[in-house]
Amino acid sequence: MAEQRMLKFVKVARDMPSKRLAEERRGDFHEIYREFADAKAAEQSSRCSQCGVPYCQSHCPLHNNIPDWLKLTAEGRLREAYEISQATNTFPEICGRICPQDRLCEGNCVIEQSGHGTVTIGAIEKYITDTAWEEGWVAPIVPAAEREESIGVIGAGPGGLAAADALRRAGFKVTVYDRYDRAGGLLIYGIPGFKLEKDVVVRRNRQLAEGGVEFVLNCDVGKDITFAELRAKHDAVLIATGVYKTRDLGGPGSGLNGIVRAIDYLTASNRKSFGDLVPEFESGELNADGREVVVIGGGDTAMDCVRTAIRQGAKSVKCLYRRDRANMPGSQREVANAEEEGVEFAWLTAPKGFTGESAVAGVRVGRMRLGAPDASGRQSPEEIPDADYTESAQLVIKALGFEPEDLPRLWDVEGLEVTRWGTVKADFTTKQTSLDGVFAVGDIVRGASLVVWAIRDGREAAASIIDYLDTRGSGASIAAE
């Protein structure tokens, strides 16, 4: 009788790749999870129940064929597993590392709901594609036929890169423009190395470049090149800039030195990891070494900041969040990792102001409680009267989320419609904006969201651009009339 390869969740317990000890990982920016061995990955894959309605797949924004590549992994057919994984996800090794699986695929796993512990989907996804790179299965982009049309992509983040990959595979000339000196967007400068080591992103960028995608870096649209020039140069344009404008925080003392934006802090740290000269880091402005650090916010960016500060040698790190642990937007797995590494969380707290002369010395904190639900259904925090206190701090990091920049103004473009939130208005299905031949994807359309959603948007936009050019025919630019 053939060995039963699947449905082993009753006999085999859930098992994640082992984590490096907190004391060890506090001292570097390497990823914290060790690699699965072949046998362990196969064993964990065999726990999949192969259910008739795979909720893991339906709750994945990319609708990855998760049960299929779990079965293939359990059977030792890793190359086929990689091909299935790559068919729906442009960057599976990145999603395997940074997706909040506890809120998506793993959180909706049928055997998790039945009390047997979820299949470790993210770790296996990472393992499959890392193995594919090591074995040379990740093939260079070689279009079946070249096309004359060219597409300009503004933004080298996950949405722009996913679209560039798909468009180049279809044979189009693709040029990606980005304001930074390295491609990757927040994958490079926003997410710390302990969650996503940078060589993982760099090798994908290299694959795109070797496959014929042109990168124009250090290029700020609206300054170095106009939007009108891009439209004149290309047959279609894709806006994938992301959102980088930080939500601000007022109150007494909000202008003191030592109060910084999360994006600036994380970018400085990641540049330092690349070996760049970072004056703001060397001066201590964006360096937590030896300082009492307070991070304000409860999302994944806040978790990135607190864990970065620990690694920089902060004297203490505290995170203020206005709701409780159960209602925070960030990954619970990241909160647990942060606590292991020495971060202290002050739940139900909100900043009211800052103390200090020229530099911040403390945060004036109000204690909160949860009241009636708001329009979203979450309980609204409300202040407890006469319960203020001061939290000592020499570095305060604002991780309050991101908002879109005013692109029509920055790019001096008329007719580009935006929503009341400032995001670019694009058709839900086609991703086309109010301008002919101009498409938009990712956070600049959705607002701050997940990498996996940006990848999905980029892939869908590529398909829409292909349909648009096939219908329109080649030979004319899309310069504004």
From TrEMBL:
Superkingdom classification of source: Bacteria
Keywords: 4Fe-4S, Iron, Iron-sulfur, Metal-binding, Oxidoreductase
Domain FAD/NAD(P)-binding per the UniProt entry, residue ranges: 152-458
Keyword Iron on entry: yes
All residue ranges annotated as the Dihydroprymidine dehydrogenase domain in the record: 26-136
Organism: Amaricoccus solimangrovi
InterPro entries, per the entry: DPD_II, FAD/NAD-bd_sf, FAD/NAD-binding_dom, GltD-like, Helical_ferredxn
GO molecular function: 4 iron, 4 sulfur cluster binding; metal ion binding; oxidoreductase activity
Protein's name in the database: NAD(P)-dependent oxidoreductase
Keyword Metal-binding among record annotations: yes
